[in-house]
Amino acid sequence: MSLTPDDIAANLAAVRARVAAAVARRGPGPVPTLIGVSKKQPAEAVIAACRAGLGDLGENYAQELVAKAEVVAAAVTPPRWHFIGPLQTNKVRKVVAVGALVHTVDRPGLVDELAREVARLRAGRGATTPLEVLVEVNVGDEAQKAGVTANDLPALLDRIAARPELRCVGLMAIPPEPPEGDPEQTRPHFARLRELSRREAAIARPGVDLVHLSMGMSADFEVAIEEGATMVRVGTAIFGARPPRA
Ligand SMILES: *Cc1c(COP(=O)(O)O)cnc(C)c1O
């Protein structure tokens, strides 16, 4: 069962208050963008969140994103969509068509496919605005995890710099689950992403402007903000528990 619109609005207000408190602890800097993660939640839940003032939504599956974006756009002013799931090259066309900010660029083949699709979509339209993307980094060096390693990050940024269709605006990470669910244990991973960003931002590359750090979820977004997150991805704290996969 998904939550009622009133519950979603109340959760959203509570999360916003926690974001504001974390920003106050952090000190000066940008106000982080709150991305509501709506995977496996019905379009009605997204519409309720949009009506409550949420302007950024995140989805993990291309097909679900396309279907939901259409229903939502028919009901409210469309939000800005973020694609935060693993992206297969054969799903790139769908995601690019929705205009989502892709947070999960993690390999050369995906850079090339995104650039190809942007060029294709724009051929004949005369539009030249590049597609904004983030690079996902495997900050915990986990064997099974998506994301580019810290070692391979510079080469991947070079590859994006060579593609005028793309603009890299920051880095994203999904750190390892802490053993006791203690968000403090995730803090060093957030700090590592910030340090990698600082290091790479010192290198001038065309079309690469590392201003964003997409990090922090329901369990740890406050710690992420204290460590410099400019985008937090919050699902269950806004929408409630996700229904089990059908
Ligand atoms: C599902 C998901 C989230 C949101 O997780 P919650 O714990 O529900 O807040 C954030 N980021 C990514 C990449 C996700 O897949």
Automatic annotation (TrEMBL):
Protein name: Pyridoxal phosphate homeostasis protein
Top-level taxon: Bacteria
Keyword ATP-binding attached: no
Modified residues (N6-(pyridoxal phosphate)lysine): K39
Keyword Transmembrane helix: no
Pfam families per UniProt: Ala_racemase_N (PF01168)
Gene3D superfamilies: Alanine racemase
Domain Alanine racemase N-terminal: 11-243
Keywords: Pyridoxal phosphate
Function: Pyridoxal 5'-phosphate (PLP)-binding protein, which is involved in PLP homeostasis.
UniProt record similarity statement: Belongs to the pyridoxal phosphate-binding protein YggS/PROSC family.
